[in-house]
């Protein structure tokens, strides 16, 4: 994935690094790689979401490791120079600048590390649909609910998870949410 960093223009790479720092500081739930990838592709750069996600994971690991080892900017750049010779010059400049400006703000406590094994809920969208027919059945008239959850995994990668439910399944789902809300009211 390091060779794909060459493809990303400096301004997009800087934005990606800024979002990673914000994620590590718990200011945003994660990096929306799908949206960023689409913007990069619109600018004429050929890169896919999977490669961009790998780059996010690498840079996120780099910043969190540097924070846990309390590295200065020069120590980080020296370590990068010793271990990763494939990084392009513009990427190293961006990493130097972002780490110099915001690196000390990252706090990585043991409690936060143990909590980071679970994803974080970001958003939910739903829609009601009706399947009218299929190639095997002329008249279905089958209502369903499609739910899309936006979730940030522990590394900060934001993904969409979609599923469909029948109306009885959706009513049960809704009932469980009402029960959770009632329990939360007592806390």
TrEMBL record:
Signal sequence extent? none
Q: Where is the COMM domain?
A: 120-187
Report the Pfam families cross-referenced here. COMM_domain
Q: GO molecular-function annotation terms?
A: NF-kappaB binding
What protein family does this chain belong to? Belongs to the COMM domain-containing protein 6 family.
> What is the annotated role of this protein in its UniProt record?
Scaffold protein in the commander complex that is essential for endosomal recycling of transmembrane cargos; the commander complex is composed of the CCC subcomplex and the retriever subcomplex. May modulate activity of cullin-RING E3 ubiquitin ligase (CRL) complexes. Down-regulates activation of NF-kappa-B. Inhibits TNF-induced NFKB1 activation.
Name under which the protein is recorded: COMM domain-containing protein 6
Q: Which gene encodes it?
A: Commd6
């Amino acid at each position: 994935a390091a060779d794909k960093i060459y493809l990303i223009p400096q301004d997009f790479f800087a934005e990606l690094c800024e979002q990673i720092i914000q994620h590590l500081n718990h200011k945003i739930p994660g990096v929306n790689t799908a949206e960023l990838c689409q913007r990069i592709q619109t600018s004429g750069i050929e890169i896919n979401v999977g490669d961009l996600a790998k780059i996010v994971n690498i840079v996120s690991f780099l910043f969190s490791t540097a924070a846990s080892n309390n590295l200065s900017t020069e120590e980080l750049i020296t370590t990068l120079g010793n271990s990763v010779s494939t990084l392009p010059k513009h990427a190293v400049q961006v990493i130097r600048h972002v780490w110099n400006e915001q690196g000390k703000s990252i706090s990585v406590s043991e409690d936060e590390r143990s909590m980071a094994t679970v994803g974080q809920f970001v958003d939910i969208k739903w829609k009601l649909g009706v399947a009218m027919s299929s190639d095997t059945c002329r008249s279905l008239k089958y209502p369903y609910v499609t739910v899309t959850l936006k979730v940030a995994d522990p590394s900060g990668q934001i993904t969409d998870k979609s599923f469909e439910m029948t109306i009885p399944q959706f009513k049960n789902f809704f009932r469980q949410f009402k029960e959770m809300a009632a329990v939360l009211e007592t806390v």
